[in-house]
User: Which sequence fits this backbone?
């Protein structure tokens, strides 16, 4: 497919429409309605909103075949300081070949590109192709990678998934996962004028933190180190005027490798805590995964344990090779690599084992930045690439 001037305008118009609708996590309603309007007007035969507010749309081919899902999230991080932007974050504008606005790169530009590509593909073939093309505008990804995607999976039951996260139009075949680990120490409260009458939970946490810094984490020859990094500490009560803290909570970011389980991740930490408690009978400590919940614009509450698995496919996999061949046939030469961050692929590939790749416009480094943008040339290249992926996997 050649992206004609008319189609370029259509892709850009959809991207601008989505960017113009502020959609922080839990407040995606207007962006979701914008996407639904486009789907209903451009040949999608099934359009619906799930219980969390994610939008799914389908173009069904005339013959049986695979269900191919293109996944992109509609939610964005907030704009901390609008005054720091040279280009208004929710008034998208094109300048010097770039489309500016919150979410342009992460990742409404990609949603526009693959949604338009699906419409072009169905129209060009008059639906004479095997299988089904599904697109999903998913909510709450910024908070819970892969959790809202579980509901999308229930509806679509995809055979293959394309994650549209930024890849500079390279082909991604894996990622590390992510877990948030909570370590807590418990003490006995007392007046700080008489600290000997209590047990200071923070002192216990200091010993725990030092011990965990020495803990060896696993490594993978492709995905790299697992990483266990302290991200915050808070004592109770806070603020603690004239009181010995009775509780202390530390949060760790743990990057997950393929094959790691909840037990294999917590077990080494638990062993460290047990050793410390054996050495010091006054120390009480526990470890668990953080849990989170948030309100959806539909009124539902989304809840999850913060454990989002990693995933990785071999470059030699037939579906990867089929996509590579088609992309090269249209003149693209993608590098096969992996995402450095967590995506909804944690569900599709990591939990459900569905063949998954990543392909999207823009650079990973532009996510969450002031004056976020996506290059219009990347939008067009991505649209052509998505079209080629449909050709490769719907045969």
Assistant:
């Amino acid at each position: 497919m050649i992206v004609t001037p008319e189609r370029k305008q259509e892709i850009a118009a959809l991207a601008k429409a989505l960017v113009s609708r502020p959609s922080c996590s839990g407040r995606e309603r207007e962006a979701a309605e914008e996407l639904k309007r486009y789907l209903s007007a451009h040949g999608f035969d099934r359009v619906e909103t799930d219980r969390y507010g994610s939008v799914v749309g389908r173009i069904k081919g005339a013959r049986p075949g695979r269900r191919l899902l293109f996944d992109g999230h509609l939610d964005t991080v907030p704009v901390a300081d609008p005054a720091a932007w040279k280009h208004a974050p929710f008034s998208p504008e094109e300048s010097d070949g770039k489309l500016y606005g919150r979410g342009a790169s992460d990742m409404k530009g990609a949603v526009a590109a693959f949604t338009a590509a699906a419409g072009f593909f169905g129209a060009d073939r008059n639906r004479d192709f095997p299988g089904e093309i599904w697109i999903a505008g998913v909510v709450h990804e910024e908070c819970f990678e892969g959790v809202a995607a579980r509901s999308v999976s229930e509806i679509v039951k995809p055979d293959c998934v394309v994650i549209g996260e930024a890849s500079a139009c390279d082909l991604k075949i894996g990622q590390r996962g992510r877990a948030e680990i909570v370590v807590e120490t418990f003490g006995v409260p007392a007046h700080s004028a008489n600290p000997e009458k209590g047990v200071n939970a923070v002192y216990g946490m200091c010993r725990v933190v030092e011990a965990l810094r020495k803990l060896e984490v696993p490594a993978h020859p492709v995905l790299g180190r697992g990483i266990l990094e302290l991200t915050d500490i808070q004592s109770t009560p806070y603020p603690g005027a004239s009181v010995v803290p009775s509780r202390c909570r530390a949060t760790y970011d743990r990057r997950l490798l393929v094959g790691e389980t909840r037990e294999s991740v917590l077990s080494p930490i638990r062993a460290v805590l047990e050793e410390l408690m054996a050495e010091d009978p006054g120390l009480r400590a526990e470890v668990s995964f953080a849990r989170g919940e948030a309100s959806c614009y539909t009124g539902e509450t989304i809840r999850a344990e913060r454990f989002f698995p990693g995933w990785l496919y071999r470059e030699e996999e037939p579906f990867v090779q089929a996509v590579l061949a088609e992309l090269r046939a249209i003149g693209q030469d993608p590098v096969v690599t992996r995402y450095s961050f967590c995506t909804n692929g944690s569900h599709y590939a990591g939990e459900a084992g569905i063949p998954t790749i990543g392909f999207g416009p823009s650079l990973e480094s532009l996510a969450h930045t002031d004056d976020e943008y996506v290059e219009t040339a990347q939008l067009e290249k991505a649209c052509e690439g998505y079209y080629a992926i449909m050709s490769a996997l719907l045969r």
Summary: The mean pLDDT is 97. The chain has nine helices and 21 strands. The longest helix spans residues 104-124.
